[in-house]
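cache lookup: miss for this entity combination. No prior model stored, computing from scratch. Input as submitted by user K.M.:
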Amino acid sequence: MRKIGRHHFLAGSVAALGASALPARALADSVQLPFANGERPLLAFPQKRPLLVLSPRPPQLETPFAVFDQGVYTPNDAFFVRWHLSNIPQHVDASAHRIAVTGEVNSPLSLSLADLAALPQVEITAVNQCSGNGRGLSAPRVAGGQWDNGAMGNALWTGVRLRDVLDRAGLKATAKQVQFDGLEGPVLPTTPDFRKSLDVDKARGDDILIAYAMNGVPLPLLNGFPVRLIVPGWYSTYWVKMLSAITVLDHVDDNFWMKTAYRIPDTPDNSVMPGATGFPTVPINRMRVRSFATNVVDGAKVDPKLQELRGIAFDGGSGIKRVEVSLDGGTTWRDAALGPDVGKYSFRRWSAELQTRAGQTYTIAVRATANDGATQPATQGWNPSGYLRNVVEMYKVAVG
Amino acid sequence: MKRVAIAVAAVLLLGAGVAAAATVAPPKGPVSISLPGDAGMAFKPGPGVGAAQASCLTCHSSAYVSTQPVLSRAQWTAEVVKMRTAYGAPITDAQVPPIVDYLTAQYGKP
């Protein structure tokens, strides 16, 4: 098969899929991501436009990167999808849904969505990014979900503060962590159910929501209908979908998904030498500052008439202070103009004048600096799970 | 349009990113979808494919294997062992070698 650059659609991969339960209309194309073994079919799952299929079961769907050029909010039908376990309800009744609040509380609760509506409502714009976003670009490569950089999205989330729910139940003095479980379950009883936990102080923060709307409408089922946890600034492993149980623990959660999975090296930059073993680890947490160009494609041609370079930047919640661009692979830099600030947890759009000459090649680089002073490294640290990618991204383009 | 209006309101009201703004009620009633199963994806044919199908496809599609980078025998062995010890896959000692042989031959390097 002909190899072409990322985000260019290939025809002819339909036959490789064989028989399918999806309508033929959905099986139009595939995409070659910019790493070995990176061909992905484009299929339309329920309530979704055609997305890059990393796995159909459980569904893991990546957003085509061109979507991020179209606005600061990621449309619900284009928003990435990532489930851990294949026992996912395909019929969910919001009116019958309950969230159990138990454990180290004075008054255990069973809350309906109508009960949530009685609490103060809050809206927050926040980026939801998979811990392994960009894992396919790890060098050396690591096993795991082989995402390009499209396992992220930005949405306006509407719901209630987790703190208000916890206060209704009343935390006991013994409360140490708060554990979240959703309707997703394992196929086998021997597989650990997917549960995530936050320290009590983190869980009681102003910005932690139980959200029932995404960009002003109910969540797509594959994004967690009818309610999911929102942990702005932190990787999406904590954003538990179809939230059904909140259990207040008197200890640090030792379930598999906290104690063994989603851990990063406890080293100064959370990286280790490839092949290293025996280092201490901590649960993954706050997102690192990142930026991307959204109207150029690595390895592709650029129209000589293109006069604007533009893209997005975000971090773990301090907000974006500065975005710089380079046309010479990071030797010289100049400032980009920042777009409107729609919240410190949101994508921040940026643009810069682009002056190129036909026939020339350029290595475009983008670097963001956050309000907390953090910026993006020129080389990517390595960790065994391919988490925390935030290297300065490069786009080699030819003009003409 | 409603979404645009909400987004605009959020920009005007939020500033730092958080504000109370009761504009969207929680959903009511059911939503049903129909997932496509494995969407026609399957393991490559080859010796041991039956063992791989029986052990791997209970919990996930073949794409979990086919999208990996080219892994060594040691790396595929580690993956199979992880599926058994961490994820509780009912794979016996005797079933490990034929599965590893299959994965290494079809999706790996010697």
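stored under new cache key. Chain A touches chain B through 81 residues (CB under 8 Å).
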